[in-house]
Amino acid sequence: MRLKLSCSVFLSLFVLPQWSASSVAADPSISDPKPPIAIYGFMEEAKSLFELAVKDDEACTNLYAQMKKGGPKADSVGKQSVHVKRLLRTAERMIDLGEPAGAELRMRYEFHELERIEAFNAFASMPQSQAFRGKAIAWLQKNLQKRLKKIEETQSKASKAPLEAQSTLDIAYDEYEAVAGILNATERGPFSELIEASGKLAQVASAHRRQLVNQAVDKNAAAVVIDVDRFLVDCSAAVGGVQAGQLKWSDKTLTSIDFVHEIMKQGFALQARLQKAIALHQLKRKDMASGSSFESRSGEPVANLGDTTWSDSLSKLKSGLQDTVVKLIERDTQELAANELGSRLAEYASALGRYSHRVAGDQWNNAFDEAIAKSAKRVPDVEKSIRNYQIATKEVLRWKERFASKQASILSEKGKPLAVLLSAASNRTQSTPGYVATGQPIPFFYNTTFEALPALGMNLGKDPVAIVENVVRFDGDASVRVSKMDNFIYARLPNDFYNPSFATKLKTELMIDESKPPLSVCAASAIYTAERGENLTVGGIVSDVSAEGTISRIAMMKENAAPFTGLDSPVSLSEQPARQASLRATLTPKWVRHRYAMVSQSN
Amino acid sequence: MRNPKWLTLCSFFLFPLSLATPVLVGCSKEEMNKMVEQVQSKTTAAVKETVAKIAPTGSVQIALDDGIDIPSCSVRLLSMGAGRANVVQIRSYRDESSDQPQSFLFQGTTAANSVKELVGATVTGQLFAQSNRELGLWQSDSESPASIKFLSIKETELFGEINQSQMLRVDGKNAFPSGAIKAVIEKP
Q1: Is residue A260 within 8 Å of residue A328, measured between CB atoms?
Q2: Does the predicted interface ipTM exceed a cut of 0.85?
Q3: Do A519 and B87 touch (CB under 8 A)?
Q4: If you placed Cys at B93, which of A371, A532, B47, B99 could pair as Cys (CB 3.0 to 4.6 Å)?
């Protein structure tokens, strides 16, 4: 009796959120609000549940449209009832698994339930419905023993394997609902055995799913924390054994400079894993599991998140990387021949210039430059050369930053920070259609994406101008740039807007060419970030806004997306009640500022 | 410092007392000499300070906004060796914390090996300045850099004129100002 549709249709709907352009279309947005919020599938079962829910959501829409056009039919009303009820139970199981998509699908259920009641009433008022209902009651009577047997069978399995028992009972329930779906409550009365049994089993299965989630979260978390500790111990051991510019790292012999690149790469990968663990840790919250919307409506107290392991581990990683580098520079250069010292320190400056911007402000720039200056002291010529270079470049960079910052702040007057703009537009107000007025602003996501996103679009108006700071680029060759998340809001920039041509001029200003490398990490970082287009401030027009599950976004992050969350602090998710959805704006840049200059855009 | 006035009054009365105390209680000749020395050295330091105050501080004038006129300016030559040209850095402030409007920085590279050798030379480079006016922040256009012609040295000061250079204000306005500098030569 279940609707058989080809698998490929649903696979095309079922696209995991990733950072590729193709998947962007899969998220619900103002321009296409129909798709449900995507899942992340931390728990394997969520994937098949989502697939099923998407099927049912679509089947509900189609059946309602068909009946609206051609009038209600007995089998359509029955089928509709199967899809609507199944959507509810699937959504609730997804909520148990911590999937924000579950909360949104549950709201879709509420929407389809109203459609179902409409169709049911229309059918019930038709004279021929009486005969169908009689047939349905007879069928239910005839198969009663069969159903009771099924219930007994599943009850014996329930305590050991509640999820298996549940799927067995599901089949019987859907078969029952397809027939009982045309009956009213009185008519169904004598045949409520399956409803009761399913309800009881759902409680056992729900607790079981929550337990599985908690175990998986803890296991995942413990592994990362242990890996961070081990990594830092290894770093310290390797630096302790540096000799003649070489050291041992995982059974390999590396030059000290290659070691810098290696630990940064591994450190950022660990940082990405830690941020994911922090996001997943939110799944242990009670209100994540109880939400019937994007936000918990119940306002029930959240599980105590007093566990500081995450932020401790993250700050240990950040300071551990810094300490490793500072000690490495000291030990590696203390016995270096005078004629090699200058060039080795320059190599450090260039290497570290690739990473220092990963920490906010100038913390790493200054710490690494101090270490370089300290090592330079041994040889007066080297010391003079490095000190004078640092003095000269620091002043020019400071003035350039001041100028660019002021230019950007003048331009910023013509827009609002993205988070401010979208938060304001997503507050429901008394005039927002479809909402119950409460007299106070409540975050927007209280409804399905196909209702919420068009309303958000309306509130935003035409061509809203937004400003994002902290635009970062993903590691490697990818030209994906996003702004860091701010109050559950971030922007994604087009791939080709950045024009690095000013980096050439900046090089001249910082007295750098092929044969003359930068002698400070500050200068090296300035050039590196200018060439790559890192840490930008961008003003532009919000051309679209998509909704994503917050935890999905962080938890699905690939390692090269580490800059999105950064090394400085755990991404802030512990808002109460749980914020399940985030907004991603598509921004068309009007102006772009690098730390040291306004950047003309590529055409 | 809840009551600075009170503290000032106290120290005013206590200071002479503290100096007089050893005399009152009686002290050796050596100790006396030591005290005299201390007072002398304090006096010398105070005199030196006064001299420093009237020592040249340099100045900068640039025809930007309502006119930038700063009563301090210094020049230093930064040499880096290793095939890099030397840098002439001229600025109106001592360090970042004292860089308040009005202020000015010029920096360019040169073949000269000392400030003395700069006389007669013209150095091109980057010029930054801020006036008292809101949004009065300027930088030289990177396509046509600023330049300073160095004219002479008198005692401890280097004199030069800022050639008319294209400058861009932070709000997009352009100007073509000239100017003059008198910069105290910093010891290398």
Answers
A1: yes
A2: no
A3: no
A4: B99
Selected for mutation to probe chain B from A341, A388, A391, A599 (highest B CB count within 10 Å) is A388
In angstroms, the CA A123 to CA A223 distance is 57
pLDDT in tens, A297-355: 333 333 334 456 777 899 999 999 999 999 999 999 999 999 999 999 999 999 999 99
SS3 A568: coil
Task: Give the length of chain B.
Answer: 188
A509 touches chain B (CB under 8 A): yes
CA closest to A384 among chain B residues: B80
B170 at interface of A, judged by CB pairs closer than 8 A = yes
CA distance A576 to A300: 10
Q: What ranges do the domains of chain B cover?
A: 4-54, 59-185
- Inter-chain CB proximity A395 and B78 less than 8 Å: no
CB A50 within 8 A of CB A26: no
**Residue numbers in A near B139 (CB within 8 A):** 399-400, 403
Residue pair A567/A316 in contact by the 8 Å Cβ criterion: no
For residue range A210-225, list pLDDT tens digits in order: 899 888 888 888 888 8
Q: Residue A388's closest chain B neighbor by CA?
A: B78
Contact B142 A407 (CB under 8 A): no
Give B148's strand partners.
B123, B162
pLDDT digits (tens, 9 = 90+) for A442-491: 344 467 788 788 888 988 989 999 999 999 999 988 889 999 988 788 99
